[in-house]
Amino acid sequence: MMRILGVILVMLAGVAGAQEGPSFDCGEAGRTAEEMICADAGLAALDRRVAGRYAAALEAAGGEAAELRAYQRGWIKGRDECWKAEDQRACVEGEYLRREAELVARWMLEAPTGTAVWACGGNPANEVVTMFFDTELPSLRFERGDSVDTGVQVMAASGAKYEGSFGRSIWMKGDRATYREPDPDGTSYECELVEER
User: Fold this and answer.
1) Over 60: is that where the pLDDT of 141 sits?
2) How many other CB atoms are found less than 10 A from the CB of residue 142?
3) Strands 123-133 and 139-144, how do they pair?
4) Preceding peptide of 184 cis, ω within 30°
5) What value, to the nearest 5°, has the Cα angle with vertex 136 and ends 94 and 131?
6) Of 7, 53, 76, 107, which sits 20 to 30 A from 192 (CA to CA)?
7) Which residues of 35-74 are buried (b: 16+ CB within 10 A; e: fewer)?
8) What digits encode the pLDDT tens for the residues 83-114?
9) Helix axes 65-80, 41-61, angle to 10 degrees
10) Residue 136 reports pLDDT greater than 60
11) Mind spelling out the 3-state secondary structure of 25-59?
């Protein structure tokens, strides 16, 4: 009886350890970022959370799964560059929070908490739709014509500002906003809120 109890306790300890570690095998960790994640329970939990979001995004991606996998590999390379940062832990944590925000907003892994429709440049047809998500790092989804992008909230002197890919941004102050197209265009438009839901 004692022997069986001992085996059960060892098995439970192994399961608990697996739940506390990251989504990857720490025995295979060969990069500074991975070693840091293996040694830090908070980063390991964040790694598991983002791994779950990525798995859900792969299911949602359908025909775009190959592109998503390639982007994920690129993101991992970027995360691993945090060894160059002054505060490596903050860099790794920031990379994970940004990636979670991107996955949730791009693949609509949660219902948006709100949607705002903006008419830009004095033209109602020049429309930007923003959908907001309650991720740990607040995020949004930009829809403009056929293009979709994601952005995360950044510090701003007033209002709420979100930055997306390649310089795309929107800075909202009440029912007004400044929207900037991604590079190389980079055109900025003054926008007015026309619908909120």
Assistant:
1) yes
2) 22
3) antiparallel
4) yes
5) 110
6) 107
7) ebbbebeebbbbbbebeebbeebbeebeeeeeebeebbee
8) 999 999 999 999 999 999 999 999 999 999 99
9) 160
10) yes
11) CHHHCCCHHHHHHHHCHHHHHHHHHHHHHHHHHHH
Angstrom CA distances, 14 to 7, 8, 19, stand at 11, 10, 9
Phi, psi of 127 (to 5 degrees): -105, 140
Structure tokens at 40: 């830090």
Chain centre distance of CA 171: 19
Residue 173: what residue type?
Answer: K
- What distance in Å separates the CA atoms of residue 109 and residue 54, rounded to the nearest whole number? 10
Place of tokens 């047809």: 125
Query: According to DSSP H, which parts of 40-189 are helical?
Result: 41-61, 65-80, 88-107
Of 116, 123, 117, residue with least CA distance to 187: 123
**Tell me, what DSSP letter sits at residue 181?**
P
Domains of the chain and CATH, by start? 2-107 (no CATH), 114-196 (2.40.128.200)
Integer CA distances (angstroms), 71 to 4, 61, 136, 144, 194, in order: 47, 12, 21, 22, 34
pLDDT single digits (tens) 147-197: 999 999 999 999 999 999 999 999 999 999 999 999 999 999 999 999 999
- Total length of the chain: 197
